[in-house]
Amino acid sequence: MNKIEKFNSLLKEMSICNKCINLKKNGGMDCSLINIYTDVEFSKNIPSIWTDWFNRLNSKIMIIGQDWGPFQDIKKLHDSYVKNQTEDNWNFLINQEKSMTKRMLTKYLIESSKKNNEKILNKIFITNAIMCARQGNNYRENNIKLKECTMNCRDYLKMQIDIVEPKIILTLGYYPLYSLAQIYNLKIEKNLTQTIKKYDSFKIEDMTIIPLYHPTAQVKKEEQIRQYSKIWNTVKIDEI
């Protein structure tokens, strides 16, 4: 199978997963997630940098974030696209996304590479450690079981990595790195700051894993740029 066929097969496999749909915290708080792949065609029609999978399967760089955020945001993007299913509208909706995460990611990639290329993020395969969506409209982590959901999704994340075969993986925050530590048996510290201070990067055969702070974290710009600069020691910006 080629990469497109493999990714289609992966989405079908994810569509029957129910590991995170009935989760509760102690005290009964509902932490269940919504499997956005139950309808595979729905999951393939969400125009976002986080779901533009089929246009990025040959990317040399992969970014792994923590989780999707609320389902209602995903549904709005889907509904906006299905009204006008053209490539122009797909690209328009992706470019309309103005989240702080996207803006800061672009900023640090540009400044670390010293290339003023606003389209740099469009050349990178982007995914999440937790692949289902939150209920409600709350981005805060108290309505999700981060560690359990991360572990539930790790096999699917490994499949995505095997399909894309990136040269570099960038992890945004602790839980994406934690997932890779479980997948590849990496030794990491109990928090992200300690891990970054102790481990410059991790090498898995021909692949390099660079742990990053989340781009919106309260971390000095100089420290953020220092981490992002490591990307360009492995791959040239003109190659991505």
How would you sum up this structure, described in words?
It is built from nine helices and five strands. The protein is of the alpha/beta class and 240 residues long. It has one domain: Uracil-DNA glycosylase-like domain (Uracil-DNA Glycosylase, subunit E, 3-Layer(aba) Sandwich), CATH 3.40.470. It has a five-stranded mixed beta sheet with strand order 2-1-3-5-4, with helices on both faces. It is globular and about 40 Å long. 32% of the residues are buried.
List keywords for this structure.
5 strands; five-stranded mixed beta sheet; alpha/beta; 9 helices; 240 residues; Uracil-DNA Glycosylase, subunit E; globular; single chain
Instruction: Calculate Rg over CA atoms.
Output: 17 Å
Which architecture per CATH?
3-Layer(aba) Sandwich
* Count of β-strands: 5
What is the number of domains?
Answer: 1
Number of helices: 9
* Helix fraction by DSSP (H/I, runs of at least 4): 40-55%
